[in-house]
Design goal:
This protein has 124 residues and is mainly beta. It has no helices and 11 strands.
């Protein structure tokens, strides 16, 4: 059972930056897809960014150019660097993972494993 633990959320003013981290107990498989998903209460979950075992990345349009997803394989840690934050980025951010590396072609919301989430709040 893969366990994911997010950290790094918080409150920041618009234009600021935050870096989220996600520590994984293990990788789902030697080939995998990991990503970040966010959700605002009352709204549908949204795929933000994904990264595969090769390091290939994809972003949803609203964050491309502002967010960067990366991973440290030695530490089994996933990151999301978020710059130029705006109020629309406020949400609970979840780390996600599965072994469906062939489906790691665009951000998605369905994964086999999901963390508990970390809250990001951006104020104007």
């Amino acid at each position: 059972q893969v366990q994911l633990m997010e950290s790094g959320g918080g409150s920041v003013q618009a234009g600021g930056s935050l870096r989220l981290s996600c520590a994984a107990s293990e990788y789902p498989a030697s080939r995998y897809c990991m990503g970040w998903v966010r959700q605002v209460p009352g709204k549908e979950r949204e795929g933000v960014a994904i990264i595969d075992h090769f390091g290939g990345t994809r972003y949803t349009d609203s964050v491309r150019g502002r967010f960067t997803i990366s991973q440290d394989n030695d530490k089994k840690t996933l990151y999301l660097q978020m710059n130029s934050l705006n109020v629309d980025d406020s949400a609970m951010y979840y780390c996600a993972a599965d072994a469906l590396w062939f489906a790691c072609t665009q951000p998605r919301v369905r994964f086999d494993y999901l963390g508990q989430g970390t809250q990001v709040t951006v104020s104007s």
